[in-house]
């Protein structure tokens, strides 16, 4: 049996435009960003399907490769409900221009055959859009809509945190433990301050903390 491709000469393309928003992979194939990072280097060199929200779109860079050629690089940062940061690299110029139109907190992306690799410099997993990758923008699924609502709430909470008024440091006298800070933050909706003696166990300068509390703010003094 042979197949034949014919030119569609009817001007009704708008009727089929919704097909561009239907994901190319079933929802059970999506993996979580947390699983990508927790795997260490095990998933490096593999392809995956991912549903994520755009958190940040960086400027396009002109990079000189190891063989001396110039290439365009666009990096975006995506997030899901399990982890706030995954860097996705785009080397295609046309797709980079398309990515510049993506809006943080609003654009949801469905990736099919997204390539994963271990970034030696960042010492973490990153993703690369390859020639096998298919990207569906703002897919029309319940999961995508739910993730959009989550991203909007999560990032709005972060911006609110930056507006907290910081009192005179000499007036802060209460000493609390980490546990007490968390307990009090759930007991009151008002801002409070305290002195906290603790050891920094994790310091992530590339991404947001998975836990964002708008009721209290940490001031580090060195």
Which helices and strands, and how do they pair?
Elements: H1 33-38, E1 47-57, E2 61-64, E3 70-79, E4 86-90, H2 93-99, E5 108-119, E6 124-129, E7 134-137, H3 142-161, E8 175-176, H4 178-187, E9 195-196
Parallel strand pairs: 4-6, 8-9
Antiparallel strand pairs: 1-3, 1-5, 2-3, 3-4, 5-6, 5-7
Description:
By secondary structure, this protein is of the alpha+beta class. It is 19% helix and 25% strand. The protein is built from four helices and nine strands; from the N terminus they run αββββαβββαβαβ. The strands form two sheets. It has a five-stranded mixed beta barrel. A two-stranded parallel ribbon has the order 8-9. It is globular and about 80 Å long. The N and C termini lie far apart (75 Å). The model is unreliable at 157-164 and 207-222 (pLDDT under 50).
